[in-house]
Design a protein that fits this description.
The complex is a heterodimer of chains A (380) and B (417). With 380 residues, chain A is of the alpha+beta class. Chain A contains 14 helices and twelve strands. In chain A, strand 8 and strand 9 form a beta hairpin. Chain B has a single domain, classed as YVTN repeat-like/Quinoprotein amine dehydrogenase (Methylamine Dehydrogenase, Chain H, 7 Propeller), CATH 2.130.10.10. Chain B contains three helices and 33 strands. In chain B, strands 1-27-28-29-30 form a five-stranded mixed beta sheet, with no helix packed on it. The chains are: A alpha+beta (380), B mainly beta (417).
C-alpha cells in the first residue's frame, strides 16, 4: 500500500482547502436503472429517465456516480461517464468537487478499473496539479490504463538516460518490461533493448505459445470448411489418421521459430489454398486460475477450450495483430486443451498467402502465464 | 483521460487559431444558416447551391480558423444552426470515442462528450474508429463508430441513449475497420453494419435507441453508406453492397426493389432528379420511377471508374475520381465521357459541388477548386493544408469545413461568406 499512501499524501496536501459537500440520496436508484440496460437497448427508456436525473446533480454526487462504474456493463458505464461529463461542464465544478472522496476511489484497488480510471480522469480535468504527480505510482496497478501512465514515464526516463548512461537506461527498460501490458509499450521496450544488444524477441516478451500439434489439410472449397465438422472437432487423438483433402492426414508436432511467435501453417503443411487445418496442444497450469486466451489471426478461425466452443470468425485476410481477440476462461489445474481451426480461402493475391496464427495465454491483467512443467501440477 | 498530455505532447485543446482577418475587422456578415446534417450533406449529394463555395482558395484569409481535434477521424464535420459537430477517436487502440461541438463562427469548443469503445477498434492505419459520419435530425445527433458504438445526444450534448452493437451482435466487425455512415429517413435511423462475419442493416427508433427492424445483409466487407431517396411516391433508402442495390422501406426494412448486377463496396451511390447513379460496372444510372422494372437502367459507363470518393453531380454532369487522381466528367443524361482532368491526388474524400465548381481535397491535403463546363475542367485555385486528409468536407453558407486526424479548418471567402 506504499503507493497508495504516496498519492494520498500528495492529494491531501493539494486539497486541504476543499470541503466535502453532501450528495443526493436517490442516486442508487438511478444507477440501478442504468445498470439494468440489456441487449438491443432493452431498458433504455428507464435509463433515459435515470440519466436525466443524475446528469443534473451537483458535483457532490460524483463519488457515488463514479462508484457506480464498479457494477456496470461496458454500455451502462458509458451512460454514467456521460452524466459525469455533463456535471463537470457545470459552473464551479472544480471548486465544489469532493476531491478527497474521489482520491479515495482512485486509491482503493478494490474498485473496478473503470471507476478508478474515471476518478483519475476527473482529477486530471479539474485538478491536474494532483493528477500529474500521481501518475508515477501506478506501475503495478491492476487498472491497466493507469499502469500505462507509469510505464510511459519509465520509458521517458529510459529514453532520457540512453544518451548518457546506457546501463541505467537498460535497467529502466528491464523494469518497464516487467510491468508493461499494452502491446505497443512492450514492443517499444523490446525494440529499445534489442538496440542495446539484448537478445530478446517479441515472442519471448509476449509469451507466445510456439509448440503445437498440427493436422491438415482438410477441404475448404467454396469456403465451406468453416462450417464443416472435420474429425478433430469430434475427437482429438494425436495418434489417429484421417482422410484429408489430398489424402491421409495425421497430427505432426510443429515449433514456430518466428520472432513474433506466428505459427505458419504454410510451413507446417504446405502453401495451399481452399484448405482447413487444426492446431492443438495441452497447456498445463499449476493451479486453477482465471486466464485469457489471446489470438491474432487473419484467416477464418474457430477456437475450443477444454472441449467447449469459444468463438469463431469467418473473415479472411483483412488484418491481424497481437491480442486481436481476447476470451476470458478459467484454467483448470493440469492440462487444458486448446484446439484452433484455421481456414485458408481461394484468393490468390500476394497479401492472401498467409495461413497463420499467433496465440498466448495471459492472466486477466495481460501477463503471460508460464506453463507448468508437465506433471508438476500433480505434485503440489 | 488525455493521453496526449501523458505522451508529453503539448497541445492546447480546441483553442482557435485565427489565421485570417477576423470577420469583425472586415465587416463580413454571415450568410443565412444552412445545415450539413449527414455524410455528403443534404440528400447525400455533396452538392450545394450556386456560389456556395469559396471563390479563390489562394486568397489571403481564406482560412478563417483552425482548431485542434481530440483525436483521429475520417468522419465529416456536420454544420447545424451555427455549430459544427465532429467525431474523433483517440488513445491507445483508439478506444476513446469523442463527439465535439464547436461554434461555427469562432471554432470555440462548446461541449465535448466521450465514451469508451465497447466493440473492436482494430482498423487499418489509414482509417480510424471515427470513420462513419454522424447524422443530425430532429434536434438529435447520432454518432456511429467503427466499433459499432452508437451515441445519441441532443445538440447541447445531453445523452439520449447509447448502444454497443458489437455486444448485441458479437461477430459484426471488420478487422480493417467499418465506415458506413447512417442516415435518418422517415423518422428512422438506418445503419448498415456489413462485414464478412455478421452482416446486417438496422432501423433504430430515435426515441429510445431500440431496433424497429433488423435485416440480414450480404456477408462481405462493405464501406458504402445508405442513400435516402424517393422511390415512386414513397420515401426509401438504398442499401448498396457487392451484390448490388436493395431499396428498402425505412419503416420496416422490407425490400421494395433491387438491382442485382453488383456494385462497389467503397464509393456510394448518389441520387439526383429521379435517378440513382450507382458505382456498378463503372457507373450505372437507374431510373427511380421505373425501379425494379425492365428498362430501369438508363445507361452504363465503364469509363467512369470511381475509386474511394463517391460520384458527384453538378451542372448536368457527373464526376468521378479514379485511383490516379483523374477527374472524369460525363453527361448526366447519357453517361458519355466528356473530358478528363488530372489533379493532384490521390483522393479519398468525395468532392463538393456548387454550380459549376467542384472543391476537391486530396489525401495529401491539397484543396483544389475546379471550374467545370461540358467542354473542360479548369483548376482555378488550390490550397495546401499540409496534412493527410481523407474525410469528405462539410459545408454551409459558403463555408467549408475540412478535418484531418489533428485539425479542423474553416475555409471561406474573406469577402463573401
Amino acid at each position: 500500500m506504499k503507493h497508495v499512501d504516496k498519492f494520498l499524501c500528495v492529494g491531501l496536501l493539494c486539497l486541504i482547502q476543499f470541503s466535502i459537500p453532501g450528495r443526493a440520496g436517490d442516486v442508487a436508484e438511478s444507477l440501478q436503472s442504468i445498470h439494468a440496460i440489456g441487449r438491443e437497448g432493452q431498458g433504455n427508456e428507464a435509463a433515459m429517465r435515470a440519466w436525466k436525473h443524475i446528469s443534473t446533480l451537483s458535483p457532490s454526487a460524483l463519488p457515488e456516480l463514479i462508484a457506480g462504474l464498479n457494477d456496470g456493463s461496458p454500455v451502462a458505464n458509458n451512460w454514467i461517464r456521460m452524466a459525469i461529463q455533463t456535471i463537470l461542464d457545470g459552473d464551479g465544478a472544480a471548486s465544489s468537487l469532493p476531491a478527497l472522496e474521489i482520491i479515495g476511489i482512485l486509491s482503493d484497488r478494490a474498485n473496478a478499473s473503470a471507476a478508478r480510471v474515471q476518478a483519475f480522469d476527473v482529477l486530471q480535468k479539474l485538478h491536474p496539479e494532483i493528477a500529474g504527480p500521481i501518475e508515477a505510482v501506478f506501475l503495478d496497478d491492476p487498472a491497466l490504463p493507469l499502469r500505462r501512465l507509469s510505464v510511459a514515464r519509465l520509458l521517458q526516463q529510459a529514453d532520457d538516460a540512453s544518451g548518457s548512461d546506457r546501463g541505467t537506461a537498460e535497467l529502466i527498460y528491464e523494469k518497464a518490461l516487467v510491468y508493461a501490458r499494452d502491446t505497443d509499450q512492450v514492443e517499444a521496450i523490446v525494440s529499445a533493448l534489442n538496440n542495446m544488444g539484448r537478445d530478446l524477441t517479441p515472442a519471448d516478451a509476449f509469451g507466445f505459445i510456439q509448440n503445437w500439434n498440427i493436422i491438415g489439410p482438410f477441404d475448404n472449397s467454396g469456403r465451406e470448411g468453416f462450417e464443416t465438422v472435420f474429425p478433430p472437432e469430434k475427437e482429438v487423438d494425436f495418434d489417429a489418421s484421417y482422410q484429408g483433402k489430398n489424402g491421409e492426414v495425421s497430427w505432426d508436432a510443429f515449433v514456430s521459430k518466428d520472432t513474433y511467435g506466428k505459427v505458419d501453417i504454410n510451413e507446417a503443411i504446405a502453401a495451399l489454398k481452399e484448405v482447413t487445418a487444426y492446431a492443438c496442444r495441452d497447456f498445463y497450469s499449476d493451479s486453477e486460475q482465471p486466464a485469457e486466451l489471446r489470438l491474432g489471426c487473419k484467416n477464418a478461425w474457430k477456437i475450443w477450450f477444454n472441449g467447449e466452443y469459444v468463438f469463431g470468425r469467418d473473415e479472411y485476410h483483412r488484418a491481424a495483430r497481437i491480442d486481436q481477440y481476447v476470451f476470458p476462461v478459467k484454467l483448470r489445474r493440469g492440462p487444458n486443451r486448446i484446439l484452433i481451426k484455421l481456414c485458408q480461402n481461394e484468393q490468390t493475391e500476394s497479401w492472401t498467402r498467409e495461413w497463420e496464427f499467433q496465440f498466448r495465454i495471459c492472466d486477466p491483467l495481460g501477463r503471460p502465464i508460464v506453463e507448468a512443467a508437465h506433471g508438476q501440477e500433480d505434485h503440489q | 483521460m488525455d493521453f496526449r498530455v501523458n505522451m508529453g505532447v503539448v497541445v492546447r485543446r480546441f483553442v482557435a487559431v485565427v489565421v485570417a482577418v477576423s470577420s469583425v475587422a472586415t465587416g463580413i456578415v454571415n450568410a443565412p444558416s444552412q445545415s450539413w446534417d449527414q455524410f455528403r450533406g443534404p440528400g447525400s449529394s455533396a452538392s450545394l447551391g450556386e456560389g456556395q463555395l469559396p471563390l479563390d482558395l489562394g486568397q489571403d484569409g481564406v482560412i478563417q480558423w483552425v482548431v485542434d481535434l481530440p483525436g483521429e477521424g475520417l468522419s465529416s464535420p456536420l454544420i447545424h444552426e451555427g455549430r459544427v459537430f465532429v467525431t474523433a477517436s483517440s488513445g491507445p487502440d483508439q478506444k476513446t470515442l469523442h463527439v465535439i461541438c464547436l461554434d461555427q463562427n469562432s471554432g470555440t469548443l462548446i461541449w465535448e462528450r466521450s465514451i469508451t469503445a465497447t466493440g473492436r477498434t482494430m482498423c487499418h492505419e489509414k482509417t480510424a474508429v471515427a470513420a462513419p459520419s454522424p447524422v443530425i435530425a430532429d434536434g438529435l445527433i447520432f454518432a456511429l463508430y467503427s466499433s459499432n458504438d452508437l451515441i445519441c445526444l441532443d445538440l447541447d450534448g445531453n445523452l439520449r441513449w447509447l448502444r454497443g452493437l458489437t455486444l448485441d451482435y458479437p461477430n459484426a466487425s471488420n478487422s480493417l475497420g467499418m465506415a458506413s455512415s447512417p442516415v435518418f429517413i422517415d423518422g428512422v435511423l438506418v445503419a448498415q453494419i456489413e462485414n464478412d462475419s455478421q452482416s446486417f442493416a438496422v432501423g433504430i427508433n430515435p426515441e429510445n435507441g431500440r431496433n424497429i427492424w433488423l435485416i440480414d445483409r450480404p456477408r462481405a466487407a462493405n464501406w458504402t453508406s445508405p442513400v435516402p431517396l424517393q422511390s415512386g411516391d414513397r420515401m426509401a433508402v438504398a442499401l448498396q453492397s457487392s451484390k448490388g442495390i436493395s431499396v428498402i422501406n425505412p419503416r420496416n426494412g422490407d425490400e421494395i426493389w433491387s438491382f442485382t448486377d453488383g456494385a462497389a463496396t467503397i464509393p456510394s451511390s448518389v441520387a439526383h432528379d429521379g435517378v440513382l447513379y450507382v458505382p456498378s460496372n463503372g457507373i450505372t444510372a437507374l431510373d427511380l420511377n421505373r425501379a425494379g422494372e425492365p428498362g430501369a437502367v438508363l445507361w452504363n459507363s465503364r469509363r467512369l471508374r470511381p475509386s474511394t470518393p463517391s460520384p458527384v453531380i453538378a451542372a448536368d454532369m457527373i464526376f468521378t475520381l479514379n485511383n490516379a487522381g483523374v477527374l472524369t466528367c460525363a453527361s448526366l443524361k447519357e453517361g458519355d465521357r466528356l473530358w478528363d482532368l488530372r489533379l493532384s491526388g490521390p483522393f479519398s474524400a468525395t468532392p463538393l459541388a456548387a454550380g459549376n465548381r467542384l472543391l476537391l481535397v486530396s489525401e495529401r491535403g491539397v484543396v483544389q477548386m475546379v471550374t467545370v463546363t461540358p467542354e473542360d475542367g479548369t483548376l482555378t485555385s488550390q490550397l495546401d493544408l499540409g496534412e493527410m486528409i481523407l474525410a469528405t468536407p462539410g459545408a454551409s453558407a459558403g463555408q467549408v469545413f475540412i478535418r484531418s486526424d489533428r485539425h479542423l479548418w474553416k475555409l471561406a471567402s474573406p469577402l463573401v461568406l
